[in-house]
Amino acid sequence: MKRTPPHTDTLLIGAGQAGLAAAYYLQRAGVPLVILEERSAVGDVWATRYDSLRLFSPAWASALPSLAWPGNPLRYPTKDETAAYLRQYAAHFKFKIECGQRVISVAPAPTGGYVVETAAGLRYQARRVVVCTGPYTTPRRPAFAGQLPPAVQQLYSSAYQRPAQLPGTGPVAVVGSGNSALQIAADLAATGRPVFIAFDEKTPALANNTAMWAFILGTGLLQAGRNSPVGRLMRQRPEPVVSQDLHHLRGFDNVQWIGRATEATAAGTIQGQRAATPPLAAVVWATGFGPDYEWLRVPGALASDGQPLHHRGLSSVPGLAFLGLPWLHSRRSALMGGAAADARFVVRHLLKST
């Protein structure tokens, strides 16, 4: 006889900041919930990032609902402090979290709701599902990357942790125009080896300090909705990088700026808009991530390009929602400090509609 899977009212996929914030509001509403987390521990996605990583927002602007960060609120927490805060948050509210459970299928249940299956063989049935896997996780790199020879080590930014991962002391390239590219390039440059950064110099830069955060939060600029005049204008512009990181990297004599990357060659070089690299020992691709929702087998949940279909995180499919996506509602949506507002809105409306 086939065993009926255990049932929960609401199942959350992902125990990052979005999942934990949603769990807080569900718990406060008295709704039974389970969180499925693919990693072996809460916060592990932060703990395993590159050693020099820090939050781009200060602790005071990065709290989840009803639990402040410990320590100096003005500091920019390290990756390990961030992992510890998420673990503390989960333990403080005693959420039911199943770790080591990578979801491989979400499909409509014959009797209503959803059946969720994991790679470890766990099977749940839930009335509602909230996808909290965060900003897109599938690394993207330019098609021309395939032109590089096998002798050139290629590493995605999500796999980079420290300079010792890259072979030898020869020239390396970092390709990307975001904050991670700047931080990783500086990390490598501090070893003294030649570093070539393929960075689009049209990328805007913004100071990252207490005054800036007080201004953008106090004026509501960071919370402007994606379809508001301010939100539309912000989405049309490239994401700014931290000006302090930009100036820091420009201070290294062993760093050469080659402009946006345009091609790679079989000789192991990368051509930028301004200059080309010599033959490289390694390349770190910090070129962003794309969606991968092949496991979400719910008709009407995704657009033809694989992007979630939603309004402020709420799917038109009953009982399904998304959290933690870039510009889910505002620029702050993908930041830790924006998790609470989005989760509060999604949970309130999801409970009303189902």
Which labels suit this protein?
354 residues; alpha/beta; FAD/NAD(P)-binding domain; 8 helices
Compose a concise summary of this entry:
This protein is of the alpha/beta class and 354 residues long.
Show unreliable segments: none
What is the CATH-assigned architecture of the largest domain?
A: 3-Layer(bba) Sandwich
Radius of gyration: 21 Å
* Apparent shape: globular
- CATH topology group of the largest domain: FAD/NAD(P)-binding domain
CATH superfamily of the largest domain: FAD/NAD(P)-binding domain
Structural class: alpha/beta
- For this structure, what is the CATH class of the largest domain? Alpha Beta
Number of domains: 2
- Based on the structure, what is the oligomeric state of the protein chains? single chain
How much helical structure, as a percent, in the residues? 10-25%
Which strand-content bin applies to the residues? 15-25%
Please work out how many helical segments DSSP would assign: 8
Q: SSE order, as H and E?
A: EHEHHEEEEEEEHEEHHEHEEEEEEH
What's the end-to-end separation, in Å? 31 Å
Strand count, sense and barrel status of the largest sheet are: 7 strands, mixed
Q: How many β-strand runs? A: 18
What do you see in this structure?
This protein is an alpha/beta fold. Helices cover 23% and strands 20% of the residues. The chain contains eight helices and 18 strands. Helix 1 (17-28) packs across helix 8 (339-353) and helix 4 packs parallel to helix 7 (243-250). The longest helix is centred in the N-terminal third of the chain and has 15 residues, at 79-93. It is globular. The protein starts with 6 loop residues before the first strand and ends with a helix.
